[in-house]
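Lab channel / #folding
Pinned by the channel admin:
"Please post every new chain as: sequence first, then the C-alpha cells as a reply. Keep commentary short and put observations after the output so the thread stays searchable."

First post following the new format, from NK:
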Amino acid sequence: MSVLRRWRRGALVGGALIPLVLIVAAAPGSASLSRPAPAGLRYRAQAAPDDEPREGGESGEILAAAQMRAAIRTAPATSVSSAAFAAAVAQAGALARVCGAWQEVTSVPYNSDAVAYRDPVWSNSSGGAGLVSGRATGIAFDRGAVYLATADGGVWKSTDRGRSWRPIFDRQVKLSIGAISVNPADHSIWVGTGEANTNFEAYNGAGIYRSADGGASWRLVGNRLDQSLVSRLTFDGIGNVYAATGRGLLKRKATDLTSRWSVVLKPDPNPTNSPYRTSFMTDVRVRPGTHGRVVLAALAWRGGTLPTDTQYNGFYQSADAGAHWTRLTLTGDLAGATDVGRTTFAFSSAGDRLYAVVESTETVALKGVYRSAAGDPAGPWQLIADSDKLARSGSALALSGGEPGQQAWYNKDIIVDPNDLSHVYVGLEEVFETANSGGMWSTIGPYWNFPFACWSFDPAEDTCPDTTHPDQHALGISGGTLWVGNDGGAYRHPVSAVGKVQWSNLNATLRTPASAGSPAATTSGAGCRTTACRCSSPAHARWSPRSAVTAATSSSTRTTATRPSTNTSTWRWPALRTAAARRKGPSTPTPTSPHRVWIRCNRSPAATPTRGSSRRSLRTSTTSTTGSPADSSSGTTRARAGKPPARRRRVTGRTCTTPAAPSAPSPPAAASPTPPGAPPATTPAVPV
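Reply from TO:
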C-alpha cells in the first residue's frame, strides 16, 4: 500500500502542471509544430518556468500530440464549418443501405474497480468509482425523466432514476453537448451543442436544438451557430431564453424558433481578432423573484494566455430583462479583484442568497467559493472556501498530494438545495458539501479511496464506501436527490445524507464515448450504438469498418487484439484490416493492429456506406477554431495519469431503416487553408 500511495502522490504533483500544458495545447486550429502559435500561446510558452521543458518531456509530448491531432483533423485547412458537417450528414443520410437486425456482442460494462485488473502501481482499480462511462456535461429534469448531456455522446434519457438510459440525440449534426435545460413553460428540452470546458479535446458544436416531445424529434433553433460552445441555457420565466456561449450572451423568445439569435452582451471589441477575446460567457442566471428582470452573467475567460485576454472579465448585470447591461463593481472579498476567471453562479430558490465558485486567471486554479448573503450580485462577497479549507474537509485529493480546485479552469459547478439556502454542493475534482453556508465543509465525493484507512488492496478488507469518479462538471437536484455528472458518467446521492459518502452508480447502461485510449462507439445506420456487433443473418456477410477505436493502453485493462471467430462470445477487440485488404474485400479481416473495431452486416457488396460510417470518417478529420477537435463519435478525456478507459456501448436489437433527415442542414461552406506562417483562422462572431 505504501508503494501505491507514493506513486499516486507523485503522479498528482506532476499532474498539477497539466492544466497549464493544456492551455498551451489548446491552440486554435494548430496545424503543425512548425507553424507559429497565436500571440497568446507564444506568451505562455515564453513564460513557462525554467524547470518545465518547452520541448520534450511530458509537457512537450502532450503539446506535440495535440498539435498533430489538430493538424490531421483539419488538413489542409485549420477549421471545418458546422455547415459542412450538416451537409455531409444530409448526404450520408440519403445513401441507400441494406441491413439486417443488430445483435449485441459486447454487453459487459466497464468496471473501473474490477478485481482481475488490479495491481499495486498503475491501476485505479479499487479506487471506488465502480462502473464508469464517458464525461457528462449537463443534467436536466422534467416530469420524472432525467436528461443527461455528454461531452461527445449526445443526450441520454432515463425514466427510472438512472437505472437504465437510452440515447435520444444521435441523428443530429454533432453530438458534443455543452448545456441542457428544460423550459418550465412548455416542458420542451433545449440542448446547446459544443462542450465549453476549454480542454484540448472538447469538441465544438453546431447550434442549439429543441425537442417538444421528450427527445423523440429535434429541430435547430434559429440560425446555426457555427462551431458553438455553450456553457448554460437559462429561461427567465417571461418567455425568453438566454445562452451563455463562447461568443457572447445570446437571447431569443422561447416561442420563436426561426429568427436569428440576438447577441445581447459581447463587451470585448477584440480588435486583434484574438481567439481568447471572444467574450467567453461561462454562466447566465436569472435572479428568482424579479420576474425575469434581473439577469446575471459572467464573462470569464479562464486565463493562461495574454493578460489583455481577460481585461473584460467580470460579473455583468441587467435590470431590464437583458436590454441593457452593467459591469458590476464588486464589494467585499472580491473588491478590486483582477484575476476573476471562469465563474459559476447559484441562487437560492427565493433569490435571497447567491453563491459563486470562481477560478483565478493567474493560477488557472480555484480562487475561491464566495457568498453574497443577501443575494446581491455586487456583494458584499464573502470567501467561504478556498483550496486550503477544502483540503481540510477530508479531501482525498489533498491527502494524495494534490490541491482541491487545481483544475477549476476545467471542472466545476455549484448548486443550492432548493429547500435550504444554507445547504450547498460544490463540484470540483471532488464533491464538497456545506450545511451552514460555508462555515464547515465535508468531502462527500472523494477523488478516490486510496489514502483512507478503510481502503485495502484486498477487496475482502476494503471497507470504504463507493465514491464518484473524479472531475465534476454538472450538478442537479430533483426529488430529494443530488445528481452528479463527471468524467466517469453519472451518480446520485440523497440530499438527506448530509456529510455522508453515499452514492448510487448510474453507469450500467450509460454507454458514452470517454477516455483517451478507450473503447468508443458510433451510431449505426439503424441508430443503434455499437462497437463490435454482428448481423443476425451471417450469410452473404462482409466485414466493414465501423468505428475508429483506440485500444486501451492502460495496464489496468490488459486487452489484446484478436481475430473475430465464429463464436461471438469470444470476440475481443477485433483488429484493423489494411487498406489493401479492404480493396480486395476478403471474407475475414486480417488482424494487423488493435486500433479499429469491425462488425459484420448483411450488406450486398455494392451497398453504399451507412450514414454512421460516413459520418464517422468525416468527423475524424475536423477541429474547432478553439483548438479543440470539432466533433467525433469517439470523445476523449484529457490525458492524465491513471485515467481509466470507459467500456463499450450498447447495441439494441432493431432493424435498420432509412433515418429521418437531420435537422435543417445548411449549405456546405468551403474550408480555406491558412497560408504558411499565418496564425490559425478563427470564425467570426455570429451576426445578430
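NK: The CA atoms of residues 500 and 593 lie 46 Å apart.
TO: also worth noting, Residues 2-72 form one domain.
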